[in-house]
C-alpha cells in the first residue's frame, strides 16, 4: 500500500499555484505524474501524492519540473482568484473515484491525440523534406546539364577556331613552300647568259677544290651510362622497416590508379581531362579554395565514380561536407578514407591524422563529444607533436567534464 505524502508546500497568486513535493530519496526517473483540470497525482514508489484541486486549472499551460530531489508544479488557474485551500475537502468517495477515472480516461485520450498529431506532423515533414530534396536535385541536375551544354558549346567554338587557324597556317606554309621552290628554281636555272666552255671548266675546277678543302667532323662515339636506382620507396631504416605493409600499400595505390568504374557510354560523355581522377581532385581543391564547396563536391563525386579506391578523394570530400554542414556525410567519408588508408605506413600518416581530426570535428558538431575525443586521441597517437590537435583535444575534455545533464 502506498504511503501518502503530507509534507508538501504550496503558494499562490491570483493566476498561478506553486506546489513543491520532496522526492523522499527516490530517483527522478522513477516518478509518474498525472494532471487534469481538477486532479493532480504523483507516484514515486512507495510514495503517493494526490490532490483534488479546489478550482479548475489549465492543464495545457501547467508544467512540472523534476530535479535536485524535488518536484515543482506550476499550475495556471482558469479563473483568476484566491483559493481558500489547495484541495476540496467536501467530496464523497464516489465523486473522488469518478474524478480519478475521468482523469485517467482524459490522459489516455490526450496521449492518443498527441501521438496521432506527432505521426501526422512527421508524415507532413517527410513529405515536405522529400519535395524539397526533389526540387533541389532537379535544380542541381538542370544546372549540371546547363554547365555541360555550355562546355560543349565552348569546346565546339574553340575547335572551329583551331581548325580555321590550322587552315590559315597550312595556306601560309603552302605559299611559303611555293615561293621557296620558285626562288630555288631561279637559283638553279639563272637567266643570265650561258657561260662559255672555258668559263664552265674553270668553275668546275674551283668547285672541286672547295669540296676537297671542306673537312667533315668525326662520327660520334657511342657509350653506355649505367644508372642504379634504390629499390626502397619509404625512407625507413632497415631495422624499423615494415616491408610487407609498405608493399601492400604501394600495390593498393597502383590498383586504385588503374580502376575505372564508369561504363563506356558514360565515359564517352566526358572530356579527356574529366576521365582523370587526379585532374578532378586538383579541380576540387581549386574550387574549395575559392569557397565553392558544392562544386568541389560535384567534382570529387565524379572522381570517386571513376575510381573509388583513392583515399584522398574521400578525405577532400569530407572537408567540403564539413563546410556545408553535412556532418553525417563528413563522418562517412572520413571513415571510408581511414578504411582505404591501410596498412598504416609512414607515407599515409599525415592523411590518417586529417581523417581522424575531420571525423572528430563532425562528431563534436553533433555534440557527440566522447566520440570526437576518441578520434582526436587517435590522431595524437599518430602525430604526438601536433600542438593544434593537443589544444583541441583538451578543449573537448573540458566540455565533457563541465557538461551535466539537466532533468526536468
UniProtKB/TrEMBL annotation:
One record GO biological process: inner dynein arm assembly
This protein's record includes keyword Nucleus: yes
Major location (coarse): other
Keyword Repeat: yes
Region (Disordered): 146-203
TPR repeat coordinates: 353-386
One Pfam entry name: CS
InterPro entries: CS_dom, CS_DYX1C1, Dynein_assembly_factor_4, HSP20-like_chaperone, TPR-like_helical_dom_sf, TPR_rpt
Transmembrane residue ranges: none
Domain of life: Eukaryota
Bias (Basic and acidic residues) ranges: 146-181
Compartmental location: Cell projection, Neuron projection; Dynein axonemal particle; Nucleus
Keywords linked to the UniProt accession: Cell projection, Cytoplasm, Neurogenesis, Nucleus, Repeat, TPR repeat
One GO term describing the cellular component: neuron projection
Domain CS positions: 3-87
UniProt-recorded Gene Ontology molecular function terms: nuclear estrogen receptor binding
Entry protein name: Dynein axonemal assembly factor 4
Originating organism: Leptobrachium leishanense (Leishan spiny toad)
Amino acid at each position: 500500500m502506498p504511503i501518502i505524502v503530507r509534507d508538501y508546500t504550496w503558494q499562490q497568486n491570483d493566476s498561478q499555484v506553486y506546489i513543491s513535493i520532496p522526492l523522499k530519496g527516490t530517483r527522478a526517473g522513477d516518478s509518474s505524474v498525472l494532471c487534469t483540470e481538477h486532479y493532480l497525482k504523483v507516484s514515486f514508489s512507495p510514495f503517493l501524492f494526490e490532490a483534488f484541486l479546489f478550482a479548475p486549472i489549465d492543464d495545457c499551460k501547467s508544467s512540472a519540473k523534476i530535479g535536485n530531489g524535488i518536484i515543482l508544479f506550476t499550475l495556471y488557474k482558469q479563473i483568476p482568484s484566491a483559493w481558500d485551500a489547495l484541495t476540496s475537502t467536501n467530496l464523497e468517495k464516489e465523486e473522488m473515484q469518478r474524478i480519478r477515472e475521468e482523469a485517467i480516461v482524459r490522459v489516455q485520450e490526450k496521449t492518443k491525440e498527441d501521438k496521432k498529431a506527432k505521426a501526422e506532423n512527421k508524415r507532413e515533414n517527410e513529405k515536405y523534406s522529400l519535395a524539397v530534396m526533389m526540387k533541389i536535385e532537379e535544380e542541381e541536375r538542370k544546372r549540371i546539364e546547363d554547365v555541360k551544354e555550355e562546355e560543349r558549346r565552348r569546346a565546339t567554338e574553340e575547335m572551329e577556331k583551331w581548325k580555321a587557324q590550322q587552315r590559315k597556317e597550312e595556306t601560309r606554309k603552302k605559299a611559303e613552300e611555293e615561293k621557296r621552290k620558285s626562288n630555288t628554281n631561279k637559283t638553279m636555272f639563272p637567266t643570265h647568259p650561258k657561260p662559255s666552255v672555258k668559263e664552265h671548266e674553270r668553275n668546275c675546277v674551283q668547285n672541286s677544290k672547295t669540296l676537297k678543302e671542306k673537312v667533315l667532323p668525326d662520327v660520334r662515339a657511342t657509350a653506355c651510362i649505367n644508372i642504379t636506382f634504390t629499390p626502397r620507396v619509404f625512407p625507413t631504416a632497415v631495422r624499423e622497416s615494415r616491408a610487407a605493409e609498405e608493399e601492400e600499400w604501394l600495390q593498393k595505390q597502383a590498383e586504385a590508379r588503374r580502376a575505372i568504374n564508369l561504363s563506356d557510354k558514360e565515359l564517352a560523355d566526358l572530356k579527356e581531362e574529366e576521365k582523370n581522377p587526379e585532374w578532378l581532385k586538383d579541380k576540387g581543391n581549386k574550387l574549395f579554395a575559392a569557397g565553392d564547396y558544392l562544386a568541389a563536391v560535384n567534382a570529387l563525386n565524379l572522381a570517386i565514380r571513376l575510381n573509388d579506391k583513392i583515399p584522398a578523394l574521400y578525405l577532400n570530400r569530407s572537408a567540403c561536407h564539413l563546410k556545408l554542414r553535412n556532418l553525417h556525410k563528413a563522418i562517412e567519408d572520413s571513415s571510408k578514407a581511414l578504411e582505404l588508408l591501410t596498412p598504416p605506413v609512414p607515407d599515409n600518416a599525415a592523411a590518417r591524422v586529417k581523417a581522424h581530426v575531420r571525423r572528430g570535428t563532425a562528431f563534436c558538431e553533433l555534440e557527440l563529444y566522447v566520440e570526437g575525443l576518441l578520434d582526436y586521441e587517435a590522431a595524437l597517437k599518430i602525430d604526438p607533436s601536433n600542438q593544434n590537435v593537443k589544444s583541441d583535444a583538451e578543449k573537448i575534455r573540458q566540455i565533457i567534464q563541465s557538461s551535466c545533464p539537466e532533468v526536468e
